[in-house]
Write a structure and sequence with these properties.
Elements (H helix, E strand, L loop, with lengths): L7 E7 L3 H15 L11 E7 L6 H10 L4 E5 L6 H11 L4 E4 L11 H7 L6 E5 L13 H14 L13 E4 H4 L12 H8 L7 E5 L14 H44 L1
Parallel strand pairs: 1-2, 1-4, 2-3, 5-7
Antiparallel strand pairs: 4-6, 5-6
């Protein structure tokens, strides 16, 4: 019966992250139980979307459930990929306000209450940003990771006014999510995809500054293949957003060409 009162859903895509699930869930609910939390813990569910890791994640979630934590796990056996896992979680979420975060603890669970509370009918998208005031961006990352992160962000700047669509720590209201069409299930950055395809206006984006945590278990998913997929996703998003303008300029150029040809023929 308690599920009918769920207002908030936290979606965690995971693959071989069993070692991080217990600290992640306990820290989320620990933050929600603080006296200054703007969101009551009994209104929150956590959904782990696992790509058939078979690493003990199911048993860990079952143990957490027995301890009273409102967490459940969806094990996918026929699908793979970060973006499609997030979409699956959003589709199955009970809450109207939905948050996505990584399982590796680099998105600090202590920011979850503030992120969830930032969502409203006026702010339909919330973004955890590493470029906010007082935040030392990716301070614990090696130089090459910081260069990659900054470069990826710069490539996306013409697409959105959001300061950090690459962080992966974001939330969206259910009604805004349902407006998004043709989401890229193979894309690397689902937040960027949603910002463009759900047509989120700048004034509807709330931002919460945060500093990246340090991965304590598991391995990084950043590979050359992932970076290539991101570049492919950028090409698709640029075409999605600006194809109309390109077609317009092509038509104008064709009309100008025909007009100039007509003028040249009349001058003969």
């Amino acid at each position: 019966m308690a599920q009918q009162y769920i207002q908030y859903s936290v979606i965690v895509p995971a693959y071989r992250e069993n070692g991080n699930l217990r600290p992640l869930v306990t820290r989320i609910f620990g933050a929600l139980r603080r006296v200054d939390s703007p969101v009551p813990p009994e209104q929150v569910e956590v959904i782990i979307v696992d790509d058939n890791s078979r690493d003990g994640s199911v048993e860990t979630v079952q143990s957490l459930q027995q301890e009273g934590y409102n967490v459940r796990i969806i094990v996918r056996t026929t699908e793979r990929g970060l973006s499609s896992a997030v979409v699956r979680g959003f589709n199955e979420a009970l809450g109207d306000s939905m948050l996505c975060m990584d399982a590796d603890l680099q998105h600090p669970p202590e920011y979850v209450p503030a992120m969830l509370a930032s969502l409203s009918p006026h702010h339909t998208f919330v973004l955890g940003t590493r470029y906010g005031k007082g935040v030392e961006m990716d301070k614990n990352w090696p130089l090459y990771r910081r260069v990659i992160s900054s470069g990826a962000r710069m490539l996306a700047l013409p697409l959105t006014t959001a300061s950090d669509p690459m962080s992966g720590f974001f939330g969206i209201r259910k009604e805004a999510f349902l407006k998004a069409k043709s989401l890229n299930s193979q894309g690397f950055k689902i937040a960027l995809d949603l910002l463009i395809k759900a047509h989120i206006p700048a004034h509807a984006i709330a931002e919460v500054p945060f500093s990246f945590g340090v991965r304590s278990e598991g391995e990084s998913k950043l590979t050359g293949k992932v970076m290539v997929k991101y570049l492919e996703q950028l090409v698709e998003l640029y075409w999605y957003k600006y194809s109309g303008l390109l077609i317009f300029f092509m038509v104008v150029a064709f009309i100008a060409f025909v007009w100039l040809m007509q003028m040249w023929l009349n001058s003969l």
